[in-house]
Design goal:
The protein is mainly α. It is built from eleven helices and five strands, in the order E-E-H-H-H-E-H-H-H-H-H-H-E-E-H-H. Strand 4 and strand 5 form a beta hairpin. The longest helix has 20 residues. It is globular, with a radius of gyration of 19 Å. It starts with 36 loop residues before the first strand and ends with a helix.
Length: 297
């Protein structure tokens, strides 16, 4: 992986200056789900008739799903990128991450990896390049590719659809203050994993996607966002939040106060200690350790 963040000196995400992002102690949305092929055949030997790409999937998950849907050897779809001639923004530099739009795609006898990837990217371009998105991005002094990048982080970080707007507002508030990203989801992307357990060692990872160590946006989107994440990425609700942590499922707390955030983190840690002591909970993924890390700063 390239270790130097691509230069973005010509881009500003706010009129007040520095390109920077965050959301400390957030929960990563569960994107690692089983490949949801919609098989309308009468038995398992029949080919599926449609392919569902969920919101928040990474490109690697999409490639795997296409391979399985078309019954091709693993890695076939990824290798097809070179000849797919996808219509991507210049900033993407040929990487379709963020532009494999989540939707249901029909499968036919003539479907190929190239045709499916093209369908996904063309759908994304129709959704993202329309006047509302372009105007919203310009209003926030960013380009559409940056808006997609922000939407991908919102999609990965928000525990529920209701939290998406608040997560986006945290991002914009942090942008205005020149604060670092510090999002576990970007580290997870760099490490090609989906986990809620981010350690102090992880935060020292040498990667342009390590938003604990590097200022600004990651060099690419980190997932493929849906329409709601995109909507809030260009039009977040009003609020003064700077921090958030999911204390327990269904209870994500947003605050502008670091002291209050520390108290929320302490409650999060207590909940995790109780879960760790329970045999039934020991098999469940650990909650985000970034809450603990952020409280230590």
């Amino acid at each position: 992986m390239q270790m130097n963040t691509p230069p973005r000196s010509t881009i500003r995400l706010t009129r007040r200056g520095r390109v920077a992002l965050i959301a400390t102690g957030a929960v990563v949305a569960a994107t690692a789900v089983a490949v949801p092929l919609l098989s309308m055949g009468r038995d398992q030997d029949e080919a599926p008739k449609a392919l569902v790409i969920p919101e928040g999937w990474r490109s690697g998950q999409v490639y795997t799903a296409v391979d399985k849907a078309l019954r091709m050897p693993a890695g076939t779809t990824k290798k097809s990128l070179a000849k797919a001639n996808l219509k991507l923004p210049n900033d993407a530099e040929g990487n379709p991450e963020g532009y494999l739009f989540p939707a249901t795609y029909p499968l036919g006898k003539k479907s190929t990896p190239e045709s499916l990837l093209t369908f996904m990217v063309d759908t994304a371009n129709k959704k993202f390049n329309g006047a509302p998105v372009a105007a919203g991005a310009q209003r926030n002094a960013m380009n559409v590719y940056q808006a997609v990048t922000i939407a991908s982080i919102v999609q990965s970080e928000a525990a529920t659809p209701a939290d998406m707007g608040k997560v986006a507002r945290v991002i914009f508030n942090r942008l205005e203050r020149g604060m670092p990203l510090q999002m576990d989801s970007t580290i997870n992307y760099a490490m090609n994993r989906s986990t809620l357990n981010t350690t102090q060692k992880d935060t020292r990872l040498n990667s342009p996607y390590n938003s604990y160590q590097r200022m600004g946006l990651p060099p690419t989107p980190i997932a493929n966002p849906g329409e709601e994440a995109m909507r809030v990425a260009i039009n977040p609700p009003a609020g003064d939040w700077l921090y958030f942590v999911t204390v327990k499922p269904g209870d994500t707390r947003f605050t502008a106060s670091y002291e209050e955030h520390q108290r929320n983190v302490a409650e999060f840690n207590r909940n995790q200690s109780r879960k760790s002591a329970s045999p039934a909970a020991s098999a469940s993924p650990a909650a985000s350790a970034s809450a603990t890390a952020s409280a230590a700063r």
